[in-house]
Amino acid sequence: MEEEKKGSTSGFWRWAIASVLFRLILVFFPKNLHLSSRPEVSTPLTSLRRLSEGYWLKQSSMSPYAGSMYHGSPLLLSILGPLTALRIEGQPEHLLCGLFFILADIVNAMLIRATGQCLQMAYSQRLKALDLVKLSAASGTIQSGNLAALVYLWNPFTIVACVGLSTSPVENLATILSLYGACTGLVPLAAFGWVIATHMSLYPAILIVPVILLLGYGPDAPPRKVFLQKEYKNGGQSNVQVIFSWRQLVHFVFWSIIWGTYVLVLCGISVKQYAGLQEMIRRTYGFILTVEDLSPNIGVLWYFFAEVFDFFRSFFFIVFHMNILFMILPLAIRLKHRPAFLAFVYIAITATFKSYPSVGDSALYFGLLALFANELADIKFSFFLFCGYIGVSLLSPVMHNLWIWRIILVVESVSAMLDHDRMLMKLVAARKHVDSKS
Amino acid sequence: MELLRRPIFSLLLLLSLPISFPSISLGSAVQGEDGHREEEFTEELLLKPLPDRKVLAHFHFENTAQRTQSYGRHHHLFPKAISQLVKKFAVREMELSFTQGRWNYESWGGFDPISSSNAKPPGVELWATFDVPPDQVDASWKNLTHSLSGLFCASINFLESSATYSAPEWAFQPASGNLRYGTLPREAVCTENLTPWLKLLPCRDKAGISSLMDRPSIYRGFYHSQRLRLRPAKIIADGADSGIVLEQTLTVVLQPNGFRTKSSHSSENKIPPTWAMSSLLGRKIEGRCVLAKSSNVYLQLERGLVAELNALKENQEFVGTTVLNDDLIENPAFEISVKPDWVLKEVGNLPTGSSSLMYGYSIGKSTDSGPFDLHLTWKSPMVWSCPRPPLHASRFLMGSGNERGAIAISLRSTGLNEGLYGSNKDKESCVLPVNVFQVVPWYIKVYFHTIKVFIDEQRKAVPDVIEKIRVSPSEDKVLPGVMEMVLKLPCGVKSAAMTLEFDKGFLHIDEYPPDANQGFDIPSAIITFPNVEAAMHFNQFSSSDKSPLLSRFREKNPVQSYTEVLLVPLTTPDFSMPYNVITITCTVFALYFGSLLNVLRKRASEEERLLRAKGRSSPLSRLLAKLRRKKEVEPQSSTTSSSLFSSKLVVKIILVAAIAICWQYFG
């Protein structure tokens, strides 16, 4: 067993390094790829070209938000901006930025791996507590952390987003940082990741629910009633106590406030000489929420808002954004024992329905999906789904302006989600079977 | 008595009116109390044979009004509509032009005053400066566009929206604080715009030079530009109370088609076509407009043509046939039917050596002689070139597809800049400044950081070439992108190019033109050479009055040229499908919402069934059910639950009713 593990880890490193090398090759020879101009990769929010325009405006002592080019964070601008302006003779234009994104991807993969290991450890502990050693041993065969990291690194979406010079690897980094911090109980890190992710792309704000649950209850566990059931069977007190820890929540809120004010102060300093924080918020969050830019992306909103009548516009803004918010509470109630999976579901929903989605967002939820490889091992229609997804993704460059593929993707991801949940139910039921048998 | 006297007096007054009015207006230069002229009107026509066998006809009407006590209420000659406009919106300077066709800078000239101030971009161009505080300029501009729109039967009111006009700071001449500039490249110009423009003239098109404006022949031309320019009069020194000058020009480039067939058979087709004013414009000048102070017709011979004629003359003199005058009225190349009243010669330091000639004709009253008609008969082949701008500017689009592209402005040397600076020994330090002013509509999202400059086909670092740049980036649906820059090019430059990448925006369905469109226009860029002046000094003929046209020629305006209008096709959504799009998107959302909700709700019933199948009497399952849903009734009591169920139903109905009542009451 140990040897097997060692072998798998060495295999993991080999594959991980191979993926990094692959990226480096693509970054150094980007001439005939033109990935950064694909609408799937660079949305108005994540395009590095717009970022360098914002940096240029800032350098020529204008507000980076003057005009409708840049809509990202001023902090990202001050980190990545100088990198876009630097040129190395004889090398591709945005080499340094490409290297930066590769670094972000590596860190992302490592964090996903660590998160996966943490989740798996906690899970097998819980299963042991339930005397489901057999199940835990079976689940131990797949190192879900390694798997998820590899899935993240080798996912064509991730590679395209990284090589195509969109800023989504950095946004993903903040989200994953927050999840990692929450899984390992590092409250300041979790708060930092959450604040930065929210600051950069607004939608991760809803991750506050899974992060708090993760901090409060600890990592994913079988449903509480299974423990109660066990307790009932044993006729005595269980050694596993699932108590919501309010201290962690208070810590989290405290740290969030600290990081939030810190980020706001930094932003305030960097945009002070132009128009101030109000302008920044109008240009970033306002731009995200009002879907001003109607250029095509892989989302469902742009074509809708290009065609919908003006007097319905505000109504549909509310409806579409409410759709994301609507599901927060029901999902949180149903999946409160599995906050990490809840986080995945939230990320998947926002990646589908956000106003300017890109493949970078899909890359993140695919990576996270692999974290639950053990639990979702006998998912229904998995082959069909996989083939469908690949087919749709391959077709997407051909007809990226067309509606159809995104609809299929949405329906398909919804059904995937549905199946995941059904799978969970099954799992619980199966466990109950085991329970009742034993 | 009193009653009787008054009607008689008024009758006398009435009788004297028709007599006194013409006497006032015929004098036209009415002497004010201060001794300076109050209002005056002049009409002039300049004809010029062009190197490519076409003929330029340039009408120039000038109307001057002094600001007096009665100003704004009554005018003798000055159009009241314009004076009211000026007064109401505090317009200091204004220029409005309607143009059809593109000025050919290569063969019609790009260095002379006519081309730099009268060659205009296609469609409508309007700029104005205002004497108001800076925060009220936009409001004044909006009002002005609406008034002009009504006055000239054009859609100038589209310039009202902030996405169509801009406020250039220094690259546009005249640089002034409260300047607003806007163009409508896709404005069709026709007689409906010319008629209101002619109405502003005192004689309309009934008499004088303006009677030449026969609509079919004017609109048959290759280029047609009608222009209205308001400028403060600089006659009085005190400034504050200065008057206003209304300058109306019409520039037409015509093909003398009547004699084309004859000349096509001649030797090598190099004899320029013979033309007459009546054949060009279809009419003759019957007489002067009696309200005009001066009414002149000029025939201009370009420098290149004069140089050729001089060469020909020297040849002839060498042969020894005839001795010709310096004024070239009699020459072997062409013959003019009417002997000019005076000949003006260009003076001053001239870059090409020879000077251009101007033949002047004064139009008398119709009674003096017959209708005025000018014939120009060419006798020998003649090829000459026109004065070109130092650099020929052209602009084009690069890239393909509906997603992105690049704008390129290319400047090619015409060989003149070397002549201009030929005397300058140290060529290293010699620079030719070029101002570029470019407005791009918001749906062309220009990346200003992608400016690339190429000089003589070699890429140069941007700070080395661009001395000064001001950029105002475009804002979606609110502001156009404006770029003003000064390029410092070396004098011996052969070619210079500048590229700028852009993304094409995607418009809302309402923002597309209602019918099938060929694309969207990027207005012309303006290229100015601030150090090169397009001025022509003519030795003033003493007897001729101070001609406004010639004084315009004398003004030191920088050489300016407009580039082409660019056509950008944008992606067009399916207009017929808004309902389908709405339906499909909403279906997607409903599918997502419904299926997710279904999943979230499903477990209870599923497990219920499972438990029921396993045996309902199991204490474990009962406990589980209890734990899961405390309020739920046990499976066994399904028979007894009917009453409970009904009570629940009743409660629900009551709740709904209460909500409905509340809604009705408060809503």
Automatic annotation (TrEMBL), chain A:
A Pfam short name: PIG-U
Listed pathway(s): Glycolipid biosynthesis; glycosylphosphatidylinositol-anchor biosynthesis
InterPro entries: PIG-U
Entry's family note: Belongs to the PIGU family.
Membrane topology note: Multi-pass membrane protein
Compartments it resides in: Endoplasmic reticulum membrane
Gene Ontology cellular component annotations, sorted alphabetically: GPI-anchor transamidase complex
Species name: Punica granatum (Pomegranate)
Name under which the protein is recorded: Phosphatidylinositol glycan anchor biosynthesis class U protein-like isoform X2
Organism classification: Eukaryota, Viridiplantae, Streptophyta, Embryophyta, Tracheophyta
Entry keyword set: Endoplasmic reticulum, GPI-anchor biosynthesis, Membrane, Transmembrane, Transmembrane helix
TrEMBL record, chain B:
Spans traversing the lipid bilayer: 579-600, 649-666
GO cellular component annotations of the record: GPI-anchor transamidase complex
GO biological process, alphabetically ordered: attachment of GPI anchor to protein
The keyword Nuclease is annotated on this UniProt entry: no
InterPro entries given in the database record: PIG-T (IPR007245)
Signal sequence, renumbered to the chain: 1-27
Domain of life per record: Eukaryota
Keywords annotated in UniProt: Membrane, Signal, Transmembrane, Transmembrane helix
PANTHER family reported for this sequence: GPI TRANSAMIDASE COMPONENT PIG-T, GPI TRANSAMIDASE COMPONENT PIG-T-RELATED
Name of the protein described by the UniProt record: GPI transamidase component PIG-T
Species, as recorded: Punica granatum
